[in-house]
Amino acid sequence: MTAVAPRALPGPVLVIGCGLIGTSVGLALRAHDVDVLLVDAEPANIAAAVERGAGRPFTDDVVPYLVVAAVPPAAAAAVVASALVRWPTAFVTDVTSVKAGLQRSIDAQPGAERFAGGHPMAGSERSGPTAGSAQLFEGRPWAVTPGVSTLPAALDAVVDMALHVGAVPIILDAASHDRAVALVSHVPQVMSTLTAARLNDAQGNHLALAGAGLRDTTRIAGSDSALWIDILGTNAADVRAVLELVRGDLDRVIDALGEDDTALGDVLESGRRGTALIPGKHGSAPARVDIVHVQVADQPGELSRLMSDTGQSGVNIEDLRLDHDLGRPVGLAEITVALGVGDSLVEALTSRGWTAYR
Amino acid sequence: MTAVAPRALPGPVLVIGCGLIGTSVGLALRAHDVDVLLVDAEPANIAAAVERGAGRPFTDDVVPYLVVAAVPPAAAAAVVASALVRWPTAFVTDVTSVKAGLQRSIDAQPGAERFAGGHPMAGSERSGPTAGSAQLFEGRPWAVTPGVSTLPAALDAVVDMALHVGAVPIILDAASHDRAVALVSHVPQVMSTLTAARLNDAQGNHLALAGAGLRDTTRIAGSDSALWIDILGTNAADVRAVLELVRGDLDRVIDALGEDDTALGDVLESGRRGTALIPGKHGSAPARVDIVHVQVADQPGELSRLMSDTGQSGVNIEDLRLDHDLGRPVGLAEITVALGVGDSLVEALTSRGWTAYR
């Protein structure tokens, strides 16, 4: 299932940092027989990554083709700069989530033309080499951020690496990247936090009224605070710029509530237009779909039977979510299918004894 | 799978309004052989609901035990008040999403002691009698909001009706209800809108970096604006009170970004604590779980095979989400299982040829 990259990736690739990302890069490249060398400040991490099959320990005689600095943001500038000096023919990239500050720092260094920044949009709630997986990047965006002096060959090397690990390379400059992640990741994180923070004010059985909408909007607010202090601080200017626009809209909503339905409607419509811009399945615009709800008993095998019956009805499942109901041992499956086939799926499932409805 | 209610529900039940909610109430009660009468301003809606099996057309000789005013918010006060007068022995409830204003209006009417408000936390993107379903309320919260003068027998009647349609009754007074839904529904809706509205500022390929976090936080922003203008306007004071607290936190974040990590961390931690308060599966506090990721080819039958292989491994699926990857014909299933069994599921699936990881 791993994508075939359009160009071979010459090795050796040196991965500096055997955490989740570095180990996963190593594992994914080893699956293509790329020679991968591993370095970490902590020898136990190298041993664990080697044991997983992510590559072999680095030795001084090796001249890397590409260096992947898979180190935390605070260490990235120094590691990239020293790699550019130590291996004067190597291309170098990194994996940090905010790019413009690092790019400015590297632009002032010798060898900057061999550097192109990178940011894989993938992660896990786990960390360290044992959490690494060759599949971590499969189908995920990998931002590649060339600087003004970056050589085409350096950009190609990083794009090819992203393709080899199964990712979808998205090329944009560092400043654009940071504005983009402020919009699609950092500000949504803050908004989720602000929504969830208010739940501390809830009294008695108020939260028993919570539904899927609340769970969806607050899921990412459960993330690690230390990580987000770091990310938000590093991209402070871009995040603040977006949040100030949010504050403007928030003030408009507060003023309009119960007073000015037109103004309130303008903000709501702006939100509707915004959601329609998010790329859907296969990178295309979201398709109109039918949604079928099916009750599923909380027992092993029930979901399997549902999927089997759905498959036999000839309907392809576009998306599927399973949510357990409040207070009872039954789940509700939300099956998304192509527009127009929802009714026939309901009919097929009902005839097989399922409780299904649209 | 429908719950057995603890007490029989005497009929007849008169449902006024044959839209999605009214028709679904009728269908669910008919499944328990409760006598259901139907009224609607539009005769075609009555005919459609009767055709669906939601009940029989109302006739003047019937004296209802319970009247369910399943009409839009703007009509609810008048319909409830006239029902209380017309049938001086009947209990009366409604299904509107904001309760205090209606309660104040009814408190001033004769028969207020026979009224207890209701609010089913269920819906669909569809509307009208043809969208009705006997399963719409299964396992969903149904807020029941007695007034100060409500008779115990009236409260019991509405609670029993909620139980008969498969819902989980949550009893609280109207003012508490409105504060609760401001927190768990109306403010999250506004926050989702404010997040999504900013996406209109995105340039070029910026939104190609969107991930699951953005999709989760903005999903409900795609809802119907007219509906939300109505809901937010009716609960304006409670929503405004919460949004002003949100603005306070937003100002703190804007000030703290890149300046004061302690202050930023305080807000982020407050959000983390808030998410932990949301009831999880079966109404309990959220359990710690393992999450397993599995690649699923975009072909009919693949999900069925995955569920079958998972079932044969003896692991019960707590929750399941399927997301399609950007730019390629493969989906990523997120399988939530009990804490500690993730690794063995990965092993079982890998041995059956799946690409699985945690």
Overview of the molecule:
The structure is a homodimer of 358-residue chains. Chain A is an alpha/beta fold. Chain A has three domains: 160 residues, Rossmann fold (3-Layer(aba) Sandwich); 92 residues, 6-phosphogluconate dehydrogenase C-terminal fold, CATH 1.10.3660; 69 residues, Alpha-Beta Plaits (2-Layer Sandwich), CATH 3.30.70. In chain A, 43% of the residues lie in helices and 16% in strands. Chain A contains twelve helices and twelve strands. The first copy, chain A, has a five-stranded parallel β-sheet with strand order 3-2-1-4-5, sandwiched between helices. The first copy, chain A, has a four-stranded antiparallel β-sheet with strand order 10-11-9-12, covered by helices on one side. In chain A, strand 4, helix 3 and strand 5 form a beta-alpha-beta unit. At the A-B interface, helix 6, helix 7, helix 8, helix 9 and helix 10 of A face helix 6, helix 7, helix 8, helix 9 and helix 10 of B.
